[in-house]
Amino acid sequence: MAWLARNLFSSWMNSAVSVVLIGAMGWLAIKLFQWLILDAQWAGSGPGACADAQALCWPFVRARWPQFLYGLYPAEEVWRINLGLGIGLLLGVALAIARMPARRWIAALLFLAYPLLAGLLFRGGVAGLAPVETSLWGGFFLTLVVAGSVFWVSLAAGVLLALGRQSHLPLLRQACAVWIEFWRAVPVLVLLFVVIIMLPLFLPSNIEIDKLGRAMIAFAILMSTYLAEAVRGGLQSLPAGQYEAARALGLSWAQSRLHVVLPQALVVALPQITGNFIGLFKETTVLLVIGLFDLLGEVQRAASDPQWLGTGTTATGYLFVAAFFWMACFSLSRASARVERRMARYRAGMS
Amino acid sequence: MRRNSAFWLQCLLGLGLLALLLLVFRTTQANLELLGVQSGFDFLSRKAGFSIAQHLIPYSEDSPIRTALGVAILNTLLLAVFCIALASILGLLVGVGRLSSNWLVSRLSLAYLELFRNVPVLLQIFFWYYVALRALPSFQSSLFITDYLVLNNRGLYFPFIEFSGGLSISPPAMGRFSYEGGFYLMPEFLALWVGLSLYNASYISEIVRSGFESVPRGQLEAGAALGLRRRAVLRRVAFPQALRAILPPLATVYMNMFKATSLAAAIAYPEIVSVFVGTVNNLVGRPVEVMAVTLAFYAGVSFLVAWLMGRWNERVMRRGQ
After folding, report:
1. Judging by beta carbons within 10 Å of its beta carbon (0-12, 13-18, 19+), is residue B124 exposed, middle or buried?
2. A323 vs A325: CA distance, rounded Å
3. Which of B118, B127, B298 comes nearest A325 by C-beta?
4. Average of per-residue pLDDT values in chain A
5. Beta-carbon contacts of residue A160 (< 8 Å; ≥ 6 apart)
6. Measured between CB atoms, does A252 come within 8 Å of chain B?
7. Cβ atoms of residues B313 and B243 within 8 Å
8. CB count in 10 Å sphere of residue A119
9. CA B30 to each of CA A201, A204, A205, B52, B67: distance values in angstroms, whole numbers, following the listed order
10. Which strand (E) or helix (H) includes residue A86?
11. Pick from A156, A168, A171, B163: CA 20 to 30 A from residue A94's CA?
């Protein structure tokens, strides 16, 4: 009661606001419950089960589940995706365990060998694996592949760009600054079109990169400039003493960056890097505009199937995708906030 | 010795960059020749031959492509300005709501933030366009918000000032097949406006909240001690100081919102990407020139906005020193 009085009814104004809000929320809750639970079609299979176009249609999501996960990837080859993603997950979990022995080797395996291995496994064409064209890739799988590989490339490129922007060579510094500032001004969709249309013109005619590859290049160009800015913030937060101490120890340029500067700068930049990764993850939905089918693209494609005409597939599909992205992004940002708090405590304890 | 090596390193770097640019230029030229693509900007004065649903300046199919570009640029800017206005108001409300002493208000503001920030903006736009707007009544049974504001599944109609022999305000009037007179916002515009604004308002609310929280408590207490009312403390003491922390990240969100108007291409609202990169490029087949114009537009506006926000920031920082 005391809590209520203090937090909701501390003044006439506050009480009025609280009452109105409680009423509105109650009404909304009833409406939502009706729409999400009561009116929704849960059971049955096939388009026939969903006669009411206004109601949510969960049989649609059940029927199209493999398409949402893997796109048009051949069903008999899907084990390759599961195996590839499973190995990645295993390595990631192993790396996250603080007391794991040989963590350095696991990290090397995850960041150096695994991407190539997974790429070969997914594409096929080697070791008796049937080749699967990237135009068949789609759904959640494509979202993960694009977000993962773009992040992997961009982090390396972003660190190099950030170091370049700090270089004592004016020409290199200027070149990096111009590159970063220019691409930061360009929307991701425009860059996608630019790379898809222009890259074949820039390259000799015997080199061909498929649409997915080009899209990843476009994302990587943008992502690396964002990450470069994040890393630059980290670099600038280091006291000059760290650079001087590294030099006083006789470390070379590369040694000092690798062992002294970058480990600290990356930790400082971590919250922003995670934020950028979440942004990238959400931004992969733009792929559907250029005809690549990520999770949202597959849902869109499935919902416009004439077989399911006149059922509530669009709303159901969107709700499903929204719930997926919401859970992924929310837990990522929560995890990042927790790491940030721990870092703050750690640093406070050090000084 | 060190200086010398730096000099040569830069020479090498410069030559390398130059060689790369030259190589790309030569390959592009060869490729374009191979494809039989012509070059030049003469296509801008060619007849457009396609219609654009929303144009703020006079435009018809007989207008030159130049005019179509102008229409597209104005549509882009119109959307950006509308989004920035709505997102700012919403963001300010939600951000201040986070700091409210009313538990319900602050929790709801937090729920808003977490809900809209963690769902891709393109999905939100699709929701408004394909689900929410489709559920609106048809033209025959339009919603009248007031006599002057009409909403149906073809868009939002509102009165507009007309210059036909003197100023007059023309309300939307029911024609045979649609509303005529007044001004009209197409459904694509509405979906983008609402979607982009709600999404970016969540980011602005965070900026506003941390801006206000950065004001030392002592400042508020001092204001109260001087006998200022709570509202006056907020407006005269807290807000000007919060603004210093708010402006730089706010400029970034505004830029992001401007860039995100390009998502319009996904639902065919006629802004620069869908008109120019889409329609015009297909029509004239001059990818290099079309892309150059588009990139120049985005870069130009970005640098202009960055400069303006920088100037504003300077003024805010100078005030009260």
Report:
1. buried
2. 6
3. B118
4. 86
5. none
6. no
7. no
8. 12
9. 9, 9, 9, 35, 32
10. helix A78-96
11. A156
The verdict on a CB contact (< 8 Å) between B123 and A289 is no
Across the interface, of A194, A204, A288, the residue whose CB is closest to B27 is: A204
Q: What is the ipTM of this complex?
A: 0.88
Cα–Cα distance for residue pair A97/B205, rounded to 1 Å:
36
Quickly count: other Cβ atoms within 10 Å of residue B97's Cβ. 21
Higher pLDDT, B317 or A228: A228
Provide the shortest C-alpha distance from residue A21 to chain B (in Å): 8
Q: What is residue A44's predicted lDDT score, i.e. its pLDDT?
A: 78
Q: How far is CA A316 from the centre of its chain?
A: 23
Cβ–Cβ below 8 Å for B114 and A330: yes
Closest CB to A330 among B118, B281, B298:
B118
What Rg, from alpha-carbon coordinates, does chain B have? 25
Hey, what are A335's tokens? 């995890």
Measured over all CA atoms, what is the biggest interatomic distance in chain B, rounded to whole angstroms?
A: 84
CB contact under 8 A, A329 and B121: no
- Give whole-number Cα distances, A48 to A3, A59, A60, in Å: 52, 10, 10
Inter-residue contact B181 to B170 (CB < 8 Å) = yes
Span B213-243, pLDDT tens digits: 888 889 888 988 998 888 888 888 888 888 8
Q: Could you tell me if A186 and A225 are in contact, meaning their C-beta atoms sit under 8 angstroms apart? A: no
Q: How far apart are the C-alpha atoms of B92 and B80, rounded to whole Å?
A: 18
Residue A1 CA to residue A146 CA, distance in Å, equals 52
| Type of residue numbered B169 | I
C-alpha B236/C-alpha B233 separation (Å) is 5
Contact assignment for A296 to B122 by CB distance below 8 Å = yes
Give contacts of A185 with chain B, Cβ < 8 Å.
Answer: 255, 259, 298-299, 302-303
Judged by CB atoms closer than 8 Å, whether chains meet at B118 and A169 is answered as: no
CB atoms within 10 A of CB B143: 12
SS3 call for B35: helix
Asked whether A288 and B265 are in contact (CB, 8 A), the reply is no
Residue B141, C-beta contacts closer than 8 angstroms, at least 6 positions apart: B152
Q: Under a CB-based contact definition with an 8 Å cutoff, are residues B182 and B159 in contact?
A: yes
Tell me the domain boundaries of chain A. 57-73+132-351, 77-127
Nearest-CA residue of chain B relative to A286?
Answer: B122
In the CATH scheme, what architecture does the domain A57-73+132-351 have? Orthogonal Bundle (1.10)
Structural domains in chain B, CATH included, are 65-318 (1.10.3720.10)
Asked if A147 has any chain B CB less than 8 Å from its own CB, the reply is no
pLDDT digits (tens, 9 = 90+) for B48-100: 888 888 888 888 888 888 899 999 999 999 999 999 999 999 999 999 999 88
CA A169, A173, A176: angle at the middle one, nearest 5? 145
Instruction: Please determine, for residue B321, whether its predicted confidence score (pLDDT) is greater than 70.
Output: no
Residue B232 distance to chain A (closest CA, Å): 18
How much is the pTM? 0.88
- Give the helix/strand (H/E) hosting B155: strand B155-158
Number of H helices, E strands in chain A: 16, 0
